[in-house]
Protein backbone atom coordinates (compact mmCIF):
# COMPACT_ATOMS: atom_id res chain seq x y z
CA UNK A 1 0.00 0.00 0.00
CA UNK A 2 1.25 3.49 -0.83
CA UNK A 3 2.33 5.86 1.92
CA UNK A 4 0.42 9.12 2.46
CA UNK A 5 1.65 12.54 3.60
CA UNK A 6 -0.64 15.40 4.62
CA UNK A 7 -0.38 19.16 4.09
CA UNK A 8 -2.42 21.84 5.83
CA UNK A 9 -2.23 24.98 3.69
CA UNK A 10 -3.81 28.18 5.03
CA UNK A 11 -4.35 31.29 2.95
CA UNK A 12 -5.92 34.58 3.92
CA UNK A 13 -9.25 33.60 2.39
CA UNK A 14 -9.44 29.84 2.93
CA UNK A 15 -7.65 26.77 4.21
CA UNK A 16 -7.35 23.25 2.90
CA UNK A 17 -6.00 19.87 3.90
CA UNK A 18 -4.49 17.83 1.07
CA UNK A 19 -3.19 14.27 1.06
CA UNK A 20 -0.56 12.90 -1.30
CA UNK A 21 -0.41 9.20 -2.07
CA UNK A 22 3.17 8.36 -2.98
CA UNK A 23 3.01 5.87 -5.82
CA UNK A 24 5.12 5.97 -8.96
CA UNK A 25 2.95 8.98 -9.63
CA UNK A 26 1.97 11.38 -6.86
CA UNK A 27 -1.80 11.49 -6.47
CA UNK A 28 -3.26 14.49 -4.61
CA UNK A 29 -6.57 14.42 -2.78
CA UNK A 30 -8.35 17.42 -1.29
CA UNK A 31 -9.66 16.11 2.03
CA UNK A 32 -11.14 19.27 3.56
CA UNK A 33 -11.55 22.93 2.58
CA UNK A 34 -12.79 25.68 4.87
CA UNK A 35 -13.01 29.48 5.14
CA UNK A 36 -10.49 31.61 7.01
CA UNK A 37 -12.03 34.56 8.81
CA UNK A 38 -10.98 37.56 10.84
CA UNK A 39 -12.89 39.50 13.49
CA UNK A 40 -12.56 42.79 15.35
CA UNK A 41 -12.23 42.42 19.11
CA UNK A 42 -13.73 44.78 21.68
CA UNK A 43 -10.79 47.16 21.26
CA UNK A 44 -11.18 47.27 17.48
CA UNK A 45 -8.10 45.11 16.79
CA UNK A 46 -8.37 42.84 13.74
CA UNK A 47 -7.59 39.26 14.73
CA UNK A 48 -7.57 35.81 13.12
CA UNK A 49 -10.15 33.29 14.29
CA UNK A 50 -7.42 30.88 15.31
CA UNK A 51 -9.79 28.71 17.37
CA UNK A 52 -12.07 28.33 14.36
CA UNK A 53 -9.10 27.40 12.19
CA UNK A 54 -7.92 24.82 14.70
CA UNK A 55 -11.39 23.27 14.84
CA UNK A 56 -11.46 22.97 11.05
CA UNK A 57 -7.96 21.48 11.01
CA UNK A 58 -8.97 18.81 13.53
CA UNK A 59 -12.04 18.05 11.41
CA UNK A 60 -9.82 17.64 8.35
CA UNK A 61 -7.32 15.44 10.18
CA UNK A 62 -10.14 13.22 11.40
CA UNK A 63 -11.46 12.88 7.86
CA UNK A 64 -7.97 12.04 6.58
CA UNK A 65 -7.59 9.33 9.23
CA UNK A 66 -10.88 7.75 8.16
CA UNK A 67 -9.82 7.70 4.51
CA UNK A 68 -6.14 6.73 4.71
CA UNK A 69 -5.69 5.23 8.18
CA UNK A 70 -2.26 3.90 9.11
CA UNK A 71 -0.81 4.74 5.70
CA UNK A 72 -0.39 8.37 6.87
CA UNK A 73 3.23 8.99 7.81
CA UNK A 74 3.65 12.78 8.13
CA UNK A 75 2.02 16.21 8.33
CA UNK A 76 3.20 19.80 7.89
CA UNK A 77 1.72 23.29 7.87
CA UNK A 78 2.24 26.30 5.61
CA UNK A 79 0.47 29.67 5.90
CA UNK A 80 0.80 33.34 5.03
CA UNK A 81 3.78 35.15 6.53
CA UNK A 82 4.49 37.73 9.28
CA UNK A 83 1.71 36.89 11.79
CA UNK A 84 2.41 35.02 15.01
CA UNK A 85 1.34 33.90 18.46
CA UNK A 86 3.26 34.72 21.64
CA UNK A 87 3.53 31.87 24.18
CA UNK A 88 4.48 32.30 27.84
CA UNK A 89 6.62 30.00 30.00
CA UNK A 90 3.49 28.07 31.04
CA UNK A 91 2.61 27.34 27.39
CA UNK A 92 -0.31 29.76 27.45
CA UNK A 93 -1.19 31.85 24.40
CA UNK A 94 -0.83 35.48 25.53
CA UNK A 95 -3.38 36.87 23.07
CA UNK A 96 -5.16 35.69 19.91
CA UNK A 97 -3.01 36.34 16.83
CA UNK A 98 -3.49 39.77 15.26
CA UNK A 99 -4.06 40.03 11.51
CA UNK A 100 -1.33 41.88 9.59
CA UNK A 101 -3.99 44.14 8.04
CA UNK A 102 -4.75 45.68 11.43
CA UNK A 103 -3.95 49.40 11.57
CA UNK A 104 -1.87 49.33 14.77
CA UNK A 105 1.41 49.50 12.81
CA UNK A 106 0.49 52.63 10.85
CA UNK A 107 3.24 55.24 11.03
CA UNK A 108 5.82 52.94 12.61
CA UNK A 109 8.04 52.54 9.51
CA UNK A 110 8.28 56.33 9.35
CA UNK A 111 9.10 56.57 13.05
CA UNK A 112 11.91 54.03 12.69
CA UNK A 113 13.22 55.74 9.55
CA UNK A 114 13.28 59.15 11.22
CA UNK A 115 15.26 57.74 14.14
CA UNK A 116 17.57 55.25 12.43
CA UNK A 117 17.61 56.20 8.74
CA UNK A 118 15.52 55.49 5.65
CA UNK A 119 17.16 52.18 4.77
CA UNK A 120 17.65 50.80 8.27
CA UNK A 121 15.94 47.44 7.70
CA UNK A 122 17.30 46.93 4.20
CA UNK A 123 20.91 47.40 5.34
CA UNK A 124 20.47 44.93 8.19
CA UNK A 125 18.20 42.27 6.68
CA UNK A 126 17.84 42.80 2.94
CA UNK A 127 14.08 42.95 3.47
CA UNK A 128 11.80 45.82 2.47
CA UNK A 129 10.24 47.67 5.44
CA UNK A 130 6.57 46.88 4.84
CA UNK A 131 4.39 48.21 7.64
CA UNK A 132 2.84 44.79 8.33
CA UNK A 133 6.17 43.00 8.87
CA UNK A 134 6.42 41.17 12.18
CA UNK A 135 8.99 43.62 13.51
CA UNK A 136 6.51 46.49 13.27
CA UNK A 137 3.83 44.38 14.90
CA UNK A 138 6.16 43.74 17.83
CA UNK A 139 7.08 47.43 18.00
CA UNK A 140 3.35 48.25 18.11
CA UNK A 141 2.90 45.80 20.97
CA UNK A 142 5.92 47.25 22.77
CA UNK A 143 4.40 50.72 22.34
CA UNK A 144 0.83 49.97 23.40
CA UNK A 145 0.96 46.86 25.63
CA UNK A 146 4.59 46.09 26.57
CA UNK A 147 3.68 43.67 29.37
CA UNK A 148 2.64 41.07 26.79
CA UNK A 149 6.05 41.19 25.18
CA UNK A 150 7.72 40.81 28.57
CA UNK A 151 5.59 37.72 29.28
CA UNK A 152 6.51 36.04 25.99
CA UNK A 153 8.86 33.06 26.00
CA UNK A 154 8.30 31.95 22.38
CA UNK A 155 7.50 33.74 19.15
CA UNK A 156 5.64 31.18 17.06
CA UNK A 157 4.60 32.14 13.57
CA UNK A 158 1.22 30.72 12.55
CA UNK A 159 2.49 27.45 10.97
CA UNK A 160 4.92 26.98 13.88
CA UNK A 161 2.05 27.53 16.32
CA UNK A 162 -0.06 24.88 14.59
CA UNK A 163 2.85 22.44 14.44
CA UNK A 164 3.32 22.95 18.19
CA UNK A 165 -0.39 22.27 18.79
CA UNK A 166 0.01 18.95 16.97
CA UNK A 167 3.47 17.85 18.16
CA UNK A 168 4.15 19.72 21.39
CA UNK A 169 7.46 20.92 19.88
CA UNK A 170 8.14 24.65 19.52
CA UNK A 171 10.22 25.93 16.61
CA UNK A 172 10.59 28.93 14.29
CA UNK A 173 10.98 27.76 10.68
CA UNK A 174 13.48 29.78 8.68
CA UNK A 175 11.64 30.67 5.43
CA UNK A 176 8.83 32.26 7.38
CA UNK A 177 11.19 33.91 9.86
CA UNK A 178 12.98 35.56 6.93
CA UNK A 179 9.82 37.60 6.22
CA UNK A 180 9.75 39.20 9.68
CA UNK A 181 12.33 41.96 9.15
CA UNK A 182 14.35 40.59 12.10
CA UNK A 183 16.59 37.93 10.50
CA UNK A 184 20.06 38.32 9.02
CA UNK A 185 20.36 37.83 5.25
CA UNK A 186 20.64 34.20 4.11
CA UNK A 187 18.94 32.92 7.27
CA UNK A 188 21.92 33.37 9.56
CA UNK A 189 19.71 33.77 12.63
CA UNK A 190 17.96 36.59 14.46
CA UNK A 191 19.64 39.94 13.91
CA UNK A 192 20.38 40.70 17.56
CA UNK A 193 22.15 44.00 16.83
CA UNK A 194 19.08 45.29 14.99
CA UNK A 195 16.77 44.07 17.76
CA UNK A 196 18.93 45.74 20.41
CA UNK A 197 18.84 49.03 18.49
CA UNK A 198 15.03 48.80 18.38
CA UNK A 199 14.80 47.94 22.06
CA UNK A 200 13.47 44.43 21.42
CA UNK A 201 16.51 42.31 22.26
CA UNK A 202 15.62 41.89 25.93
CA UNK A 203 12.86 39.42 25.13
CA UNK A 204 13.76 35.75 25.50
CA UNK A 205 11.93 34.94 22.26
CA UNK A 206 15.07 35.84 20.30
CA UNK A 207 17.26 33.42 22.23
CA UNK A 208 15.72 30.57 20.21
CA UNK A 209 17.42 29.27 17.05
CA UNK A 210 15.78 29.12 13.64
CA UNK A 211 14.69 25.72 12.28
CA UNK A 212 15.57 24.62 8.76
CA UNK A 213 12.85 23.53 6.36
CA UNK A 214 12.60 19.75 6.29
CA UNK A 215 13.32 19.27 10.00
CA UNK A 216 11.36 16.44 11.61
CA UNK A 217 9.97 17.93 14.83
CA UNK A 218 8.55 14.76 16.38
CA UNK A 219 5.44 12.60 16.41
CA UNK A 220 1.81 13.62 16.80
CA UNK A 221 0.73 14.09 20.42
CA UNK A 222 -0.93 10.90 21.72
CA UNK A 223 -4.13 12.67 22.83
CA UNK A 224 -4.61 14.23 19.40
CA UNK A 225 -3.87 10.90 17.71
CA UNK A 226 -6.58 9.29 19.83
CA UNK A 227 -9.04 12.10 19.09
CA UNK A 228 -8.54 12.09 15.32
CA UNK A 229 -7.71 8.45 14.70
CA UNK A 230 -4.35 9.32 13.16
CA UNK A 231 -1.46 6.89 13.69
CA UNK A 232 0.71 7.70 16.69
CA UNK A 233 3.78 7.20 14.52
CA UNK A 234 2.87 10.14 12.24
CA UNK A 235 5.76 12.62 11.98
CA UNK A 236 5.29 16.40 12.21
CA UNK A 237 7.68 18.22 9.88
CA UNK A 238 8.71 21.85 9.57
CA UNK A 239 8.17 22.30 5.84
CA UNK A 240 8.70 25.50 3.86
CA UNK A 241 6.26 27.13 6.22
CA UNK A 242 5.77 30.42 4.37
CA UNK A 243 3.27 29.59 1.63
CA UNK A 244 5.29 31.54 -0.94
CA UNK A 245 8.39 29.51 -0.11
CA UNK A 246 6.34 26.34 -0.48
CA UNK A 247 5.02 27.42 -3.88
CA UNK A 248 8.46 28.58 -5.04
CA UNK A 249 9.81 25.08 -4.35
CA UNK A 250 8.05 24.16 -7.61
CA UNK A 251 9.90 26.81 -9.65
CA UNK A 252 11.52 25.13 -12.68
CA UNK A 253 15.33 25.01 -12.40
CA UNK A 254 17.59 27.08 -14.61
CA UNK A 255 18.64 30.66 -15.21
CA UNK A 256 15.97 33.20 -16.05
CA UNK A 257 13.14 31.24 -14.41
CA UNK A 258 10.79 33.55 -12.48
CA UNK A 259 7.83 32.60 -10.33
CA UNK A 260 4.62 34.36 -9.35
CA UNK A 261 2.93 32.88 -6.30
CA UNK A 262 -0.54 34.17 -7.06
CA UNK A 263 -3.19 34.21 -4.36
CA UNK A 264 -4.46 36.93 -2.05
CA UNK A 265 -0.98 38.36 -2.49
CA UNK A 266 1.16 38.00 -5.59
CA UNK A 267 4.84 37.52 -4.87
CA UNK A 268 7.09 37.60 -7.89
CA UNK A 269 10.75 36.75 -7.91
CA UNK A 270 13.62 34.38 -8.64
CA UNK A 271 15.50 31.64 -6.81
CA UNK A 272 19.21 32.52 -6.62
CA UNK A 273 22.25 31.34 -4.67
CA UNK A 274 22.83 34.51 -2.62
CA UNK A 275 20.78 37.52 -1.47
CA UNK A 276 20.81 40.53 -3.80
CA UNK A 277 21.68 43.48 -1.58
CA UNK A 278 22.56 46.15 -4.10
CA UNK A 279 21.20 49.73 -3.98
CA UNK A 280 19.28 48.96 -7.20
CA UNK A 281 17.54 46.02 -5.49
CA UNK A 282 16.60 48.30 -2.60
CA UNK A 283 15.23 50.94 -4.96
CA UNK A 284 13.20 48.26 -6.78
CA UNK A 285 11.56 47.42 -3.41
CA UNK A 286 12.71 43.80 -3.48
CA UNK A 287 12.88 41.63 -0.37
CA UNK A 288 15.39 38.82 0.06
CA UNK A 289 13.49 35.96 1.63
CA UNK A 290 14.88 32.50 2.21
CA UNK A 291 14.27 29.54 -0.11
CA UNK A 292 13.52 26.27 1.63
CA UNK A 293 16.98 24.85 0.88
CA UNK A 294 18.92 27.89 2.12
CA UNK A 295 19.21 29.73 -1.18
CA UNK A 296 17.57 33.15 -1.55
CA UNK A 297 14.33 34.36 -3.11
CA UNK A 298 14.57 38.04 -4.06
CA UNK A 299 10.96 38.98 -4.69
CA UNK A 300 8.44 41.79 -4.68
CA UNK A 301 5.11 41.94 -2.86
CA UNK A 302 2.27 42.86 -5.21
CA UNK A 303 -1.27 43.34 -3.91
CA UNK A 304 -2.51 40.30 -5.84
CA UNK A 305 -6.06 39.02 -5.97
CA UNK A 306 -6.95 40.84 -2.74
CA UNK A 307 -8.44 43.72 -4.73
CA UNK A 308 -10.66 41.36 -6.74
CA UNK A 309 -11.61 39.42 -3.60
CA UNK A 310 -12.80 42.52 -1.79
CA UNK A 311 -14.56 43.88 -4.85
CA UNK A 312 -16.39 40.56 -5.12
CA UNK A 313 -17.53 40.88 -1.51
CA UNK A 314 -19.17 44.20 -2.27
CA UNK A 315 -20.51 43.06 -5.65
CA UNK A 316 -22.26 40.19 -3.91
CA UNK A 317 -23.93 42.44 -1.35
CA UNK A 318 -26.29 43.59 -4.12
CA UNK A 319 -26.56 40.31 -6.08
CA UNK A 320 -29.55 38.02 -5.72
CA UNK A 321 -27.28 35.06 -6.51
CA UNK A 322 -23.67 35.19 -5.34
CA UNK A 323 -21.16 35.66 -8.14
CA UNK A 324 -18.37 33.09 -8.29
CA UNK A 325 -14.86 34.05 -9.36
CA UNK A 326 -15.30 32.23 -12.67
CA UNK A 327 -18.48 34.24 -13.35
CA UNK A 328 -16.68 37.49 -12.51
CA UNK A 329 -13.82 36.61 -14.85
CA UNK A 330 -16.33 35.80 -17.61
CA UNK A 331 -17.98 39.20 -17.13
CA UNK A 332 -14.55 40.86 -17.23
CA UNK A 333 -13.68 39.05 -20.45
CA UNK A 334 -16.92 40.17 -22.10
CA UNK A 335 -16.80 43.77 -20.83
CA UNK A 336 -16.08 46.60 -23.24
CA UNK A 337 -12.31 46.90 -23.48
CA UNK A 338 -11.68 50.52 -22.52
CA UNK A 339 -8.04 49.71 -21.64
CA UNK A 340 -8.67 50.85 -18.04
CA UNK A 341 -5.90 49.91 -15.64
CA UNK A 342 -6.26 50.09 -11.86
CA UNK A 343 -3.12 50.51 -9.75
CA UNK A 344 -3.70 47.51 -7.49
CA UNK A 345 -0.77 48.52 -5.26
CA UNK A 346 -2.30 51.86 -4.24
CA UNK A 347 -2.27 51.90 -0.43
CA UNK A 348 -5.99 52.71 -0.21
CA UNK A 349 -6.76 49.15 -1.31
CA UNK A 350 -4.87 47.50 1.58
CA UNK A 351 -7.66 47.53 4.17
CA UNK A 352 -10.57 45.11 3.72
CA UNK A 353 -14.01 46.09 2.46
CA UNK A 354 -16.30 47.25 5.25
CA UNK A 355 -19.54 49.13 5.63
CA UNK A 356 -17.62 52.16 6.90
CA UNK A 357 -14.97 51.95 4.15
CA UNK A 358 -16.63 50.43 1.04
CA UNK A 359 -14.18 48.97 -1.42
CA UNK A 360 -15.85 49.89 -4.70
CA UNK A 361 -16.13 53.50 -3.64
CA UNK A 362 -12.36 53.55 -3.19
CA UNK A 363 -11.94 52.21 -6.72
CA UNK A 364 -14.35 54.80 -8.10
CA UNK A 365 -12.47 57.56 -6.28
CA UNK A 366 -9.13 56.35 -7.66
CA UNK A 367 -10.41 56.69 -11.23
CA UNK A 368 -12.18 59.98 -10.47
CA UNK A 369 -8.89 61.50 -9.27
CA UNK A 370 -7.51 60.75 -12.73
CA UNK A 371 -10.42 62.33 -14.56
CA UNK A 372 -12.07 59.02 -15.43
CA UNK A 373 -15.69 58.42 -14.51
CA UNK A 374 -16.66 54.77 -14.02
CA UNK A 375 -19.62 52.96 -12.54
CA UNK A 376 -18.01 51.12 -9.63
CA UNK A 377 -20.90 48.64 -9.58
CA UNK A 378 -20.17 47.50 -13.16
CA UNK A 379 -18.78 44.07 -12.34
CA UNK A 380 -17.22 43.35 -15.74
CA UNK A 381 -15.64 46.78 -16.24
CA UNK A 382 -14.15 47.05 -12.75
CA UNK A 383 -12.93 43.45 -12.69
CA UNK A 384 -11.27 43.86 -16.09
CA UNK A 385 -9.47 46.98 -14.87
CA UNK A 386 -8.28 45.13 -11.75
CA UNK A 387 -7.00 42.14 -13.70
CA UNK A 388 -5.24 44.33 -16.27
CA UNK A 389 -3.71 46.35 -13.43
CA UNK A 390 -2.36 43.19 -11.84
CA UNK A 391 -0.83 42.04 -15.13
CA UNK A 392 0.83 45.45 -15.54
CA UNK A 393 2.25 45.16 -12.00
CA UNK A 394 3.84 41.86 -13.06
CA UNK A 395 5.35 43.52 -16.13
CA UNK A 396 6.82 46.34 -14.04
CA UNK A 397 8.28 43.81 -11.60
CA UNK A 398 9.76 41.81 -14.48
CA UNK A 399 11.51 44.92 -15.77
CA UNK A 400 12.83 45.75 -12.30
CA UNK A 401 14.17 42.25 -11.65
CA UNK A 402 15.90 42.16 -15.02
CA UNK A 403 17.49 45.57 -14.40
CA UNK A 404 18.66 44.60 -10.90
CA UNK A 405 20.03 41.16 -11.76
CA UNK A 406 21.19 41.72 -15.33
CA UNK A 407 19.41 38.46 -16.14
CA UNK A 408 16.81 38.21 -18.88
CA UNK A 409 13.71 36.42 -17.60
CA UNK A 410 13.06 33.57 -20.01
CA UNK A 411 9.90 32.22 -18.44
CA UNK A 412 7.40 33.15 -15.74
CA UNK A 413 5.53 30.35 -13.99
CA UNK A 414 2.27 31.41 -12.33
CA UNK A 415 1.73 29.22 -9.28
CA UNK A 416 -1.34 28.89 -7.06
CA UNK A 417 -5.03 29.63 -7.32
CA UNK A 418 -4.53 32.75 -9.41
CA UNK A 419 -3.39 30.54 -12.29
CA UNK A 420 -7.05 29.50 -12.66
CA UNK A 421 -7.84 33.06 -13.77
CA UNK A 422 -7.41 32.56 -17.50
CA UNK A 423 -7.89 36.25 -18.28
CA UNK A 424 -5.10 37.18 -15.87
CA UNK A 425 -2.79 34.63 -17.51
CA UNK A 426 -3.65 35.97 -20.98
CA UNK A 427 -3.09 39.59 -19.95
CA UNK A 428 0.21 38.65 -18.27
CA UNK A 429 1.34 37.01 -21.51
CA UNK A 430 0.29 40.15 -23.36
CA UNK A 431 2.23 42.45 -21.01
CA UNK A 432 5.39 40.42 -20.38
CA UNK A 433 7.81 39.78 -23.22
CA UNK A 434 8.61 36.19 -22.29
CA UNK A 435 6.96 32.79 -21.99
CA UNK A 436 4.27 32.61 -19.30
CA UNK A 437 3.25 29.17 -18.09
CA UNK A 438 0.60 27.92 -15.69
CA UNK A 439 2.03 26.01 -12.75
CA UNK A 440 0.20 23.89 -10.20
CA UNK A 441 -3.06 25.37 -8.89
CA UNK A 442 -2.30 23.96 -5.43
CA UNK A 443 1.38 24.91 -5.57
CA UNK A 444 1.64 25.87 -1.90
CA UNK A 445 0.29 22.49 -0.77
CA UNK A 446 2.38 20.65 -3.36
CA UNK A 447 5.55 22.47 -2.26
CA UNK A 448 4.72 21.70 1.36
CA UNK A 449 4.42 18.01 0.45
CA UNK A 450 7.60 18.07 -1.65
CA UNK A 451 9.70 19.32 1.28
CA UNK A 452 8.18 16.68 3.56
CA UNK A 453 9.06 13.95 1.06
CA UNK A 454 12.64 15.19 0.88
CA UNK A 455 12.84 15.21 4.69
CA UNK A 456 11.66 11.59 4.75
CA UNK A 457 13.90 10.66 1.79
CA UNK A 458 10.90 9.54 -0.20
CA UNK A 459 10.41 9.89 -3.98
CA UNK A 460 8.12 12.77 -4.99
CA UNK A 461 7.86 13.28 -8.73
CA UNK A 462 6.63 16.84 -9.20
CA UNK A 463 6.40 16.21 -12.94
CA UNK A 464 3.29 14.11 -12.19
CA UNK A 465 1.43 16.94 -10.45
Task: Describe the fold and architecture.
This protein has 465 residues and is α/β, with parallel strands linked by helices. 37% of the residues lie in helices and 19% in strands. It has helices at residues 50-68, 108-116, 120-125, 134-144, 146-151, 158-167, 174-177, 192-198, 222-228, 243-248, 279-283, 306-317, 325-334, 359-368, 379-405, 422-431, 443-455; strands spanning 3-10, 14-22, 26-35, 38-40, 46-48, 72-78, 84-87, 154-157, 215-219, 235-238, 257-262, 266-270, 287-290, 296-302, 411-415, 435-438. Helix 13 (325-334) crosses helix 15 (379-405) and helix 15 packs across helix 16. The chain is globular. The relative contact order is 0.13.
- Contiguous helical run count: 17
**Which regions are unreliable across 5 or more consecutive residues at pLDDT < 50?**
none
| Mean pLDDT metric | 95
Walk across the major sheet and give the strand order.
Answer: 3-2-1-6-10-9
Proportion of residues in β-strands:
15-25%
Outline type = globular
Looking at this structure, what is the CATH superfamily of the largest domain? ATPase, nucleotide binding domain
The CATH architecture of the largest domain can be named as 2-Layer Sandwich
User: What is Rg?
Assistant: 22 Å
| Biggest pleated-sheet summary | 6 strands, mixed
Amino acid sequence: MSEVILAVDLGAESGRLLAAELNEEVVLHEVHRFPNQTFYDDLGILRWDIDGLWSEIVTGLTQAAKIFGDRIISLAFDTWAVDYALIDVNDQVIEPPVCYRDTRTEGLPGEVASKHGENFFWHHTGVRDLNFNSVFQLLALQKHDPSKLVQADWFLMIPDFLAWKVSGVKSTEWTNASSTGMVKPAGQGWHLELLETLGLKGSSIFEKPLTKSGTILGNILPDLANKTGLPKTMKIIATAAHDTAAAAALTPPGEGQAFISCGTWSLMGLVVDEPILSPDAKDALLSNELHWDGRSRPLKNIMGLWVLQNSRKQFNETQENELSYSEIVALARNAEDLKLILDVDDSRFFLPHSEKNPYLERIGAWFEERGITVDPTDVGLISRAIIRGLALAYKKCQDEIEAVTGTKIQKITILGGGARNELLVEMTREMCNCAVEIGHYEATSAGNLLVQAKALQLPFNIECL
